[in-house]
From TrEMBL:
Residue ranges of domain Response regulatory in the record: 1-40
InterPro entries assigned: A/G_cyclase (IPR001054), CheY-like_superfamily (IPR011006), Nucleotide_cyclase (IPR029787), Sig_transdc_resp-reg_receiver (IPR001789)
Pfam families referenced in this protein's UniProt entry, alphabetically: Guanylate_cyc
Organism: Perkinsus olseni
Limits of the Guanylate cyclase domain: 73-178
One example of a Gene Ontology biological process annotation: cyclic nucleotide biosynthetic process
Protein name: Nitrogen permease regulator 2
The organism's place on the tree of life at top rank: Eukaryota
Amino acid sequence: MISAKNSSDDVIKGLKYKCNDYVTKPFEKSELLARINTQVKLRQMVNHQARHRMAVEVLQRILPPASAKRIIDGVYDDFENYREVTIVTCVLEGLDLNDPPGATASLNKYFNELDNGLKERKALLKMESCDDSYSFICGLSPENAADHTVESLDFARTMIGVAAATDTGLRVRVGVHTIKGMLGGLIRTLCPSEEVEEARHAAVRGVPGCIHLTQEARESYERQKAPLCDKPPLTSVTDERLRVTEDIEQADISVEGSIKPPRAV
Protein backbone atom coordinates (compact mmCIF):
# COMPACT_ATOMS: atom_id res chain seq x y z
CA MET A 1 0.00 0.00 0.00
CA ILE A 2 1.37 3.40 -1.03
CA SER A 3 -0.55 6.28 0.42
CA ALA A 4 -0.36 10.06 0.67
CA LYS A 5 -2.34 9.79 3.91
CA ASN A 6 -0.66 8.89 7.16
CA SER A 7 -3.43 8.92 9.75
CA SER A 8 -3.97 5.85 11.86
CA ASP A 9 -7.46 5.34 10.48
CA ASP A 10 -6.14 5.28 6.90
CA VAL A 11 -3.39 2.80 7.81
CA ILE A 12 -5.83 0.51 9.62
CA LYS A 13 -8.24 0.67 6.70
CA GLY A 14 -5.47 -0.34 4.27
CA LEU A 15 -4.32 -3.24 6.42
CA LYS A 16 -7.94 -4.36 6.73
CA TYR A 17 -7.99 -4.80 2.96
CA LYS A 18 -5.05 -7.26 3.12
CA CYS A 19 -2.19 -4.78 2.66
CA ASN A 20 1.01 -6.04 4.30
CA ASP A 21 2.85 -2.74 4.72
CA TYR A 22 2.48 0.95 4.01
CA VAL A 23 4.60 3.85 2.89
CA THR A 24 3.41 7.46 3.00
CA LYS A 25 4.43 10.20 0.67
CA PRO A 26 6.92 11.58 0.23
CA PHE A 27 8.91 8.33 0.18
CA GLU A 28 12.42 7.33 -0.70
CA LYS A 29 12.86 5.00 -3.66
CA SER A 30 15.36 2.80 -1.77
CA GLU A 31 12.99 2.43 1.18
CA LEU A 32 10.09 1.53 -1.10
CA LEU A 33 12.14 -1.14 -2.93
CA ALA A 34 13.41 -2.56 0.39
CA ARG A 35 9.88 -2.89 1.76
CA ILE A 36 8.66 -4.53 -1.47
CA ASN A 37 11.61 -6.92 -1.44
CA THR A 38 10.85 -7.91 2.16
CA GLN A 39 7.21 -8.63 1.35
CA VAL A 40 8.18 -10.71 -1.71
CA LYS A 41 10.52 -12.84 0.43
CA LEU A 42 7.84 -13.29 3.07
CA ARG A 43 5.35 -14.38 0.41
CA GLN A 44 7.85 -16.84 -1.08
CA MET A 45 8.49 -18.32 2.35
CA VAL A 46 4.77 -18.75 3.00
CA ASN A 47 4.26 -20.40 -0.41
CA HIS A 48 7.21 -22.74 0.19
CA GLN A 49 5.79 -23.82 3.54
CA ALA A 50 2.38 -24.40 1.99
CA ARG A 51 3.84 -26.55 -0.81
CA HIS A 52 5.88 -28.53 1.71
CA ARG A 53 2.80 -29.13 3.84
CA MET A 54 0.84 -30.35 0.81
CA ALA A 55 3.69 -32.64 -0.26
CA VAL A 56 3.86 -34.17 3.20
CA GLU A 57 0.11 -34.79 3.19
CA VAL A 58 0.32 -36.49 -0.23
CA LEU A 59 3.19 -38.73 0.87
CA GLN A 60 1.40 -39.72 4.05
CA ARG A 61 -1.74 -40.53 2.08
CA ILE A 62 -0.21 -42.72 -0.66
CA LEU A 63 2.84 -44.33 0.97
CA PRO A 64 3.23 -46.63 3.97
CA PRO A 65 3.90 -44.62 7.15
CA ALA A 66 7.48 -45.88 7.50
CA SER A 67 8.38 -44.98 3.91
CA ALA A 68 6.71 -41.58 4.11
CA LYS A 69 8.57 -40.76 7.34
CA ARG A 70 11.92 -41.67 5.78
CA ILE A 71 11.31 -39.37 2.81
CA ILE A 72 10.12 -36.53 5.02
CA ASP A 73 13.26 -36.95 7.12
CA GLY A 74 15.38 -36.71 3.97
CA VAL A 75 16.32 -40.38 3.60
CA TYR A 76 16.08 -41.33 -0.09
CA ASP A 77 18.66 -44.11 -0.36
CA ASP A 78 16.14 -46.74 0.72
CA PHE A 79 14.40 -46.45 -2.63
CA GLU A 80 17.64 -47.42 -4.38
CA ASN A 81 17.61 -50.78 -2.59
CA TYR A 82 14.91 -52.24 -4.82
CA ARG A 83 13.93 -52.04 -8.45
CA GLU A 84 10.47 -53.58 -8.49
CA VAL A 85 7.03 -53.38 -6.97
CA THR A 86 4.05 -55.65 -7.58
CA ILE A 87 0.50 -54.52 -8.28
CA VAL A 88 -2.52 -56.81 -7.83
CA THR A 89 -6.01 -56.08 -9.14
CA CYS A 90 -9.11 -58.25 -8.86
CA VAL A 91 -12.14 -57.92 -11.12
CA LEU A 92 -15.49 -59.07 -9.76
CA GLU A 93 -18.36 -60.80 -11.51
CA GLY A 94 -21.41 -62.82 -10.62
CA LEU A 95 -23.28 -59.99 -8.92
CA ASP A 96 -27.04 -59.85 -9.36
CA LEU A 97 -27.46 -56.53 -11.17
CA ASN A 98 -31.25 -56.92 -10.96
CA ASP A 99 -30.89 -56.42 -7.20
CA PRO A 100 -28.75 -53.24 -6.80
CA PRO A 101 -29.05 -53.10 -2.97
CA GLY A 102 -28.05 -56.74 -2.70
CA ALA A 103 -25.13 -56.28 -5.12
CA THR A 104 -23.93 -53.24 -3.20
CA ALA A 105 -24.15 -55.11 0.10
CA SER A 106 -22.14 -58.01 -1.35
CA LEU A 107 -19.46 -55.65 -2.62
CA ASN A 108 -19.25 -53.82 0.68
CA LYS A 109 -18.95 -57.06 2.64
CA TYR A 110 -16.25 -58.40 0.33
CA PHE A 111 -14.25 -55.17 0.32
CA ASN A 112 -14.52 -54.82 4.11
CA GLU A 113 -13.09 -58.30 4.57
CA LEU A 114 -10.20 -57.46 2.23
CA ASP A 115 -9.60 -54.17 4.05
CA ASN A 116 -9.39 -56.02 7.36
CA GLY A 117 -6.96 -58.47 5.83
CA LEU A 118 -4.74 -55.68 4.52
CA LYS A 119 -4.57 -54.10 7.96
CA GLU A 120 -2.82 -57.21 9.20
CA ARG A 121 -0.25 -57.08 6.40
CA LYS A 122 1.86 -53.96 6.71
CA ALA A 123 3.71 -54.75 3.47
CA LEU A 124 0.57 -54.24 1.36
CA LEU A 125 -0.92 -50.85 0.53
CA LYS A 126 -4.43 -50.46 -0.85
CA MET A 127 -4.83 -48.40 -4.03
CA GLU A 128 -8.02 -46.38 -4.31
CA SER A 129 -10.15 -46.83 -7.42
CA CYS A 130 -13.44 -45.46 -8.70
CA ASP A 131 -14.85 -48.75 -10.06
CA ASP A 132 -15.78 -52.11 -8.53
CA SER A 133 -12.25 -53.55 -8.74
CA TYR A 134 -9.88 -53.89 -5.79
CA SER A 135 -6.16 -53.16 -6.08
CA PHE A 136 -3.12 -53.06 -3.83
CA ILE A 137 0.62 -52.56 -4.25
CA CYS A 138 3.48 -54.32 -2.50
CA GLY A 139 7.18 -53.46 -2.35
CA LEU A 140 7.16 -49.78 -1.44
CA SER A 141 8.89 -50.45 1.87
CA PRO A 142 12.52 -51.61 1.76
CA GLU A 143 11.68 -54.20 4.43
CA ASN A 144 9.67 -56.27 1.95
CA ALA A 145 11.63 -55.45 -1.20
CA ALA A 146 12.99 -58.97 -1.51
CA ASP A 147 9.68 -60.86 -1.64
CA HIS A 148 7.02 -58.40 -2.78
CA THR A 149 5.64 -60.71 -5.49
CA VAL A 150 5.47 -63.69 -3.13
CA GLU A 151 3.64 -61.54 -0.56
CA SER A 152 1.28 -60.27 -3.24
CA LEU A 153 0.41 -63.74 -4.48
CA ASP A 154 -0.24 -64.89 -0.94
CA PHE A 155 -2.91 -62.22 -0.45
CA ALA A 156 -4.20 -62.78 -3.99
CA ARG A 157 -5.09 -66.31 -2.87
CA THR A 158 -6.90 -64.76 0.07
CA MET A 159 -8.92 -62.58 -2.31
CA ILE A 160 -10.07 -65.69 -4.18
CA GLY A 161 -10.76 -67.60 -0.98
CA VAL A 162 -12.87 -64.82 0.52
CA ALA A 163 -14.98 -64.62 -2.64
CA ALA A 164 -15.42 -68.40 -2.76
CA ALA A 165 -16.64 -68.39 0.83
CA THR A 166 -19.55 -66.07 0.05
CA ASP A 167 -23.01 -67.44 -0.76
CA THR A 168 -23.85 -64.75 -3.31
CA GLY A 169 -22.16 -66.31 -6.34
CA LEU A 170 -19.39 -63.72 -6.29
CA ARG A 171 -16.40 -64.67 -8.44
CA VAL A 172 -13.12 -62.84 -8.92
CA ARG A 173 -10.36 -62.81 -11.50
CA VAL A 174 -7.01 -61.68 -10.11
CA GLY A 175 -4.30 -60.03 -12.21
CA VAL A 176 -0.72 -59.52 -11.03
CA HIS A 177 1.87 -57.25 -12.63
CA THR A 178 5.39 -56.32 -11.55
CA ILE A 179 6.93 -52.95 -12.42
CA LYS A 180 10.51 -53.47 -13.46
CA GLY A 181 13.40 -51.02 -13.70
CA MET A 182 12.23 -48.51 -11.10
CA LEU A 183 15.36 -46.33 -11.44
CA GLY A 184 15.08 -45.12 -7.90
CA GLY A 185 11.42 -45.73 -8.02
CA LEU A 186 9.55 -42.89 -6.44
CA ILE A 187 8.15 -40.99 -9.44
CA ARG A 188 6.77 -44.05 -11.25
CA THR A 189 5.52 -45.51 -8.01
CA LEU A 190 3.36 -42.47 -7.34
CA CYS A 191 1.77 -42.61 -10.81
CA PRO A 192 1.35 -46.29 -11.70
CA SER A 193 -1.83 -45.96 -13.80
CA GLU A 194 -0.40 -47.85 -16.79
CA GLU A 195 0.86 -50.63 -14.54
CA VAL A 196 -2.54 -50.92 -12.85
CA GLU A 197 -4.08 -51.36 -16.30
CA GLU A 198 -1.59 -54.16 -17.03
CA ALA A 199 -2.74 -56.01 -13.92
CA ARG A 200 -6.38 -55.32 -14.76
CA HIS A 201 -5.99 -56.59 -18.34
CA ALA A 202 -4.44 -59.79 -17.01
CA ALA A 203 -7.47 -60.28 -14.76
CA VAL A 204 -10.11 -59.39 -17.37
CA ARG A 205 -8.70 -61.85 -19.90
CA GLY A 206 -8.28 -64.61 -17.35
CA VAL A 207 -10.32 -67.34 -15.70
CA PRO A 208 -12.59 -66.77 -12.66
CA GLY A 209 -11.11 -68.10 -9.47
CA CYS A 210 -7.52 -68.02 -10.72
CA ILE A 211 -4.48 -65.78 -10.39
CA HIS A 212 -3.11 -64.47 -13.68
CA LEU A 213 0.43 -63.13 -13.90
CA THR A 214 1.97 -60.96 -16.56
CA GLN A 215 5.36 -62.07 -17.82
CA GLU A 216 7.09 -59.52 -15.55
CA ALA A 217 5.24 -60.81 -12.48
CA ARG A 218 5.97 -64.43 -13.34
CA GLU A 219 9.70 -63.75 -13.73
CA SER A 220 9.77 -61.83 -10.46
CA TYR A 221 7.96 -64.64 -8.64
CA GLU A 222 10.38 -67.26 -9.99
CA ARG A 223 13.34 -65.22 -8.75
CA GLN A 224 11.86 -64.57 -5.32
CA LYS A 225 10.51 -68.02 -4.48
CA ALA A 226 13.87 -69.79 -4.94
CA PRO A 227 15.33 -68.63 -1.57
CA LEU A 228 12.02 -69.54 0.11
CA CYS A 229 11.92 -73.16 -1.02
CA ASP A 230 13.07 -74.38 2.40
CA LYS A 231 10.41 -72.20 4.10
CA PRO A 232 7.43 -71.88 1.76
CA PRO A 233 5.11 -69.01 2.74
CA LEU A 234 1.75 -69.82 4.30
CA THR A 235 -1.10 -69.59 1.81
CA SER A 236 -4.85 -69.76 2.08
CA VAL A 237 -5.17 -72.35 -0.72
CA THR A 238 -3.21 -75.43 -1.66
CA ASP A 239 -0.12 -75.37 -3.82
CA GLU A 240 -2.09 -77.24 -6.47
CA ARG A 241 -4.04 -74.07 -7.22
CA LEU A 242 -0.83 -72.19 -7.86
CA ARG A 243 0.55 -74.94 -10.08
CA VAL A 244 -2.62 -74.99 -12.11
CA THR A 245 -2.41 -71.22 -12.40
CA GLU A 246 1.23 -71.44 -13.46
CA ASP A 247 0.31 -73.99 -16.13
CA ILE A 248 -2.34 -71.63 -17.48
CA GLU A 249 0.17 -68.80 -17.47
CA GLN A 250 2.79 -70.81 -19.29
CA ALA A 251 0.33 -71.75 -21.99
CA ASP A 252 -1.37 -68.40 -22.42
CA ILE A 253 1.21 -65.62 -21.98
CA SER A 254 1.60 -63.61 -25.15
CA VAL A 255 4.85 -62.17 -26.48
CA GLU A 256 4.04 -58.78 -24.93
CA GLY A 257 3.55 -60.36 -21.52
CA SER A 258 -0.22 -59.96 -21.21
CA ILE A 259 -2.62 -62.88 -20.89
CA LYS A 260 -4.39 -64.36 -23.88
CA PRO A 261 -7.96 -65.63 -23.55
CA PRO A 262 -7.80 -69.14 -22.02
CA ARG A 263 -8.05 -72.09 -24.37
CA ALA A 264 -10.42 -74.96 -23.76
CA VAL A 265 -8.66 -78.03 -22.40
